[in-house]
Design goal:
The chain is α+β, with helices and mostly antiparallel strands. It folds into 5 domains: 176 residues, no CATH class; 113 residues, Immunoglobulin-like (Sandwich), CATH 2.60.40.3880; 194 residues, Class I glutamine amidotransferase (GATase) domain (Rossmann fold), CATH 3.40.50.880; 172 residues, Rossmann fold; 157 residues, Jelly Rolls (Sandwich). The strands form 10 sheets. Strands 15, 16, 17, 18, 19, 20, 21, 22, 23 and 24 form a 10-stranded mixed sheet that branches. A 6-stranded mixed sheet has the order 26-25-27-28-33-32, with helices on one face. Strands 36-35-37-43-40-41 form a 6-stranded antiparallel sheet, with no helix packed on it. Helix 4 crosses helix 5 and helix 5 packs parallel to helix 7. The two termini are 30 Å apart.
Length: 905
């Protein structure tokens, strides 16, 4: 007969909850044996050290790959992942270690704690689950040193006679296996001939649902697997233990026999007791087989008291195209009124935009009814979950998150909720199809699989500028949010991307969230921003303009009248430092961005900067004293990969890991105070660090009551930018470099015989992998390397005739020569620093534009090695174009690396 054999090497593009159920459809019929002849869960090298091929690391040797332990592990561990990074991370050939420890004659390559913890979690979930799906021949293919911390003992040799036959090494590195890691323990637990643990309900043994309401029947399963060559008898016991006092509130036994190679799933039930407030219970499960093998497992449950349906006395203004939110309100006995005119806004304090209803039709209505103006005047909105089919799509990505973390625990939206409540909700989300069919043979995003336990199907990009309050976060580097409050003038919008609308009764946490959302929004008061001023040089002023801060420039002492917050840039100041200090003493709050100790000393402050600069990898924010103005920030915002050189405050430490007081000091003076900050976007290379710095400053300014005006807010231009991202372009390789000779840049050239590829993804990812025998790469070749051409046809409407248009491309890898209608308009080559990830901005001369007609953008790209092509967004735009609905979207890349792209090793 035949078998199905495969080598699954999952990376973090899909979560472990999708990978554990990967064999589910196969297991329904098992027409052929499924044999995993190799697997690595997750693929450590592809997760934690995969900047090669896609970043500047492709020019580095294998041993110099930068590692992403914190950013990738944060998906499952939240902010605690950043505290698991070694102080001076080692860059070593072992892609899993970040530290060396010498013990006698043995050197240990210690695994990174965050990476080890997450990989162990993956192993326990996926490998055990695959075994319960009855998959055969699972061969974990991790490197041995991952199980034993890569211990090496160096041994020197001496010989009486060097002339005798045979090899005679001077020295040898002998592997040492005495130091066992968590990965070793995880693999051993999976490889036990007899395995038993606690599973989910009968319909889905892999479920991790854990939130229940008093009085509910809770169903779990005892899972057994016998890989011995003979049958085994076993005795199993389960107990429900109340965490509060250790009392046993339920128990049961099971005695069984299992044939060789068989699995068994035995359900058991327990009724949740009546509770007055949330209580925690633990399922303790123990099994012993006839051969003496012992298995033990635990699973935590949260029992919530019965909650009444929210009592909302007022009628809610609702815009709902899909009908989901209308049905929810009907189920909750909430009266609603359909939004259709400006008159209704005056009679309500809040508008709810229903699930999958934030459409272009809604935006037209928002413009017609001056909804943006109403928000500026104190109106509030809730926008329930949207998908990539609605107008919020530029801010969203489908991630099917099961792990969501609290960023602002004190926010009223999280009343009566805790950190564990936002993991693995019960049942299935219905926002996206569970098992969609693939439409690409090699997609940029791998096929999602299953929607069991989803907390948020589509997550939102965290803002980096504007007035906002990050309440929850998730995904790589905690760069996404499913719940954020954004302030506009006196009003606010609550973006809720949590999968709550169709599942009010699905999970008790959802009921509380909806209750909190409605209660908070309907009772919210206008948020008033206070007058702010700026004093200092051009550097700080440019930063404030970049962020969109609404400030008055302070040029004389009288300009301070009516000012409540002042931003202090670099010296010289047009007014004296003494005047600024006295204003602070009288009640003004000041955010200062000092360059050096001399500027600090002018304010007569007992704080000094250390001489020189200090390399900082991360700030231990969660372990530092609480500063109220930083609410909504966390370890992820203060983690810098790679280290950044900063002027830090004197802390008595030269370490790369510092507490918050190394970069931020709050000092009270009289009725006011200073906040001194040593983080600014200009200190970072690339948008990855710049966005974090902008977010930190924006949070501080918002807490201080300073208004930050972003370009959007339903503010759609009649003219939209011409978006080329994802569009198809004619494409041809040019191995001989003859494109210009053949007039490939000219409008008259006929390109209809060329193939087509998409803009914003490298050509290698689109199967352009021909070997170029005419080009010799200085680095390791990853065909195709060398010259290739794009020809992009675009019709530019006459409506743009009064605009000065630019072609903006995020990244072209590596060199480019760009032509518009046959004339070169730009070139980026080796003279440009970091040319492989430098943004391009080329002016389109008005005299060359053919309005209401076909225009040709021809781009010759030279790839020196690694991936090549137009690898990021491309757009035709103009100065002042307002493309954002709400706020500028931050970069989704860690430097030039996409952490969610599908990778095959």
């Amino acid at each position: 007969g035949s078998i199905i054999a495969c080598n699954p090497y999952p990376t973090f593009f899909n979560q472990m909850d999708q990978w554990i159920d990967w064999p589910m459809k196969w297991s329904e019929n098992k027409n052929k044996p499924l044999v995993l002849e190799e697997t690595s869960v997750p693929f450590a090298q592809g997760n934690f050290a995969a900047w090669y091929l896609e970043s500047e690391n492709r020019r580095a040797s294998y041993s110099e790959y930068k590692q992403l332990f914190a950013e990738q592990s944060a998906r499952y561990l939240g902010d605690q992942a950043y505290g698991m990074i070694a102080e001076n991370p080692l860059i070593s050939f072992n892609s899993f270690s970040d530290n060396l420890i010498k013990e006698g004659e043995v050197t240990w390559r210690v695994l990174n704690t965050a990476g080890e913890t997450v990989t162990s979690l993956w192993m326990e979930r996926c490998l055990r689950g695959w075994r319960m799906y009855d998959v055969s021949g699972i061969w974990p293919f991790e490197r041995t040193l991952y199980y034993f911390a890569g211990g090496i003992k160096t041994e020197n040799f001496s010989y009486k006679s060097l002339g005798s036959p045979g090899k005679k090494p001077d020295v040898a590195e002998i592997p040492v296996f005495s130091r066992k890691t968590k990965l070793y323990q995880s693999v051993c637990s999976f490889l036990k001939p007899f395995m038993a643990y606690i599973g989910g309900r009968k319909e889905r043994f892999s479920s991790l649902e854990h939130n229940y309401t008093a009085g509910e029947k809770i169903e779990k399963q005892m899972l057994f697997s016998n890989d011995r060559l003979s049958a085994v008898k076993y005795n199993a016991v389960w107990k429900i233990i109340r965490e509060n006092d250790g009392s046993v509130t339920g128990s049961g036994k099971w005695n069984g026999e299992l044939a060789p190679g068989n699995i068994s799933m035995v359900p058991f039930q327990w009724t949740a007791p009546t509770v007055q407030e949330r209580e925690y219970y633990k399922i303790l499960f123990e099994t012993e087989d006839s051969a003496g093998a012992f298995c033990r497992d635990e699973f935590m449950l949260t029992i919530f008291p019965n909650q009444e349906i929210p009592k909302v006395s007022q009628t809610i203004l609702l815009y709902d195209e899909s009908g989901f939110t209308s049905r929810l309100f009907k189920d909750l006995n909430i009266s609603s009124e359909s939004f259709s005119s400006a008159l209704q806004i005056g009679n309500h304090s809040c508008l709810v935009v229903g699930r999958e209803s934030f459409s272009k039709t809604f935006l037209d209505l928002a413009e017609k009814t001056s909804l943006g103006k109403a928000l500026q005047n104190g109106f509030s909105m809730i926008i329930f979950e949207q998908t990539d089919k609605q107008a919020l799509a530029p801010y969203l990505e489908e991630r099917r998150e099961r792990y969501v973390f609290i960023k602002n625990a004190s926010h009223p939206l999280l009343k009566d909720l805790g950190s564990n409540d936002l993991h693995h909700w019960r049942g299935k989300s219905d926002l996206v199809p569970a098992y969609p069919l693939s439409t690409y043979c090699k997609p940029n995003r791998f096929l999602p699989w299953g929607n069991e336990g989803c907390v948020s199907s589509f997550v939102m990009d965290k803002p980096a500028s504007g007035n906002f309050n990050i309440i929850l976060d998730c995904d790589a580097d905690l760069s996404r949010t499913p719940l954020v409050e954004y302030f506009f003038g006196l009003g606010r919008i609550l973006f809720c991307q949590l999968d709550v609308t169709a599942g009010y009764r699905r999970d008790p946490v959802i009921a509380r969230l909806i209750n909190n959302l409605l209660s908070y929004t309907l009772n919210s008061r206008p948020r008033y921003f206070i007058p702010a001023g700026y004093v200092g040089g051009k550097r700080g002023n440019v930063l404030m303009e970049k962020l969109g801060v609404s400030i008055r420039k302070i040029e004389k002492e009288s300009d301070l009248d009516g000012i409540h917050t002042i931003i202090v840039g670099e010296a010289p100041y047009p007014i004296s430092a003494k005047t600024i200090r006295e204003s602070v003493r009288d009640g003004i709050m000041a955010l200062s961005l000092p360059k050096n100790s001399e500027e600090l000393s002018e304010f007569d402050i007992p704080v000094k900067l250390k001489p020189g600069k200090t390399k900082i990898t991360r700030i231990s924010y969660q372990e530092s004293p609480v500063i109220a103005e930083c609410t909504g920030l966390g370890n992820s915002d203060f983690y810098f990969n790679t280290p950044v050189e900063l002027n830090i405050f004197e802390t008595g430490s030269d370490k790369t890991v510092q507490n918050l007081d190394a970069v931020l000091r709050k000092i009270s003076i009289g009725k006011g105070g200073f906040i001194f900050l040593q983080i600014s976007p200009e200190y970072f290379y690339g948008r990855y660090g710049e966005d974090k710095a902008c977010r930190i400053i924006s949070v501080l300014l918002t807490s201080l009551g300073v208004e930050i005006k972003t370009s959007g807010m339903f503010g759609r231009n009649i003219l939209e930018q011409i978006n080329l991202t994802g569009k198809e372009a004619f494409f041809s390789i040019d191995p001989y470099g003859k494109g210009n000779e053949n007039s490939w840049e000219k409008n008259t050239f006929h390109d209809n015989q060329w193939e087509k590829i998409k803009i914003s993804s490298s050509w290698e990812k689109q199967d352009i992998t021909n070997e170029n025998l005419c080009y010799k790469s200085e680095s390791q070749p990853t065909p195709y390397d060398g010259d290739a051409w794009y020809r992009i046809h675009v019709n530019i409407s006459h409506s743009y005739h009064d605009k000065e248009l630019f072609l903006v491309m995020g990244t072209v890898d590596d060199f480019d020569w760009t032509y518009f209608n046959g004339v070169q308009i730009g070139h980026t080559g080796e003279e440009t620093k970091n040319y492989w990830c430098a943004a391009r901005k080329y002016k389109l001369p008005k005299e060359l534009i053919r309005y209401n007609n076909d225009n040709v953008i021809a781009i010759r790209v030279k790839d020196l090695g690694g991936d090549g092509g137009i690898t990021a967004d491309a757009v035709i735009t103009w100065e002042g174009a307002k493309a954002e609905l709400f706020y500028p979207r931050p970069s989704r890349f860690l430097f030039d690396f996409d952490p969610n792209r599908w990778r095959q090793w």
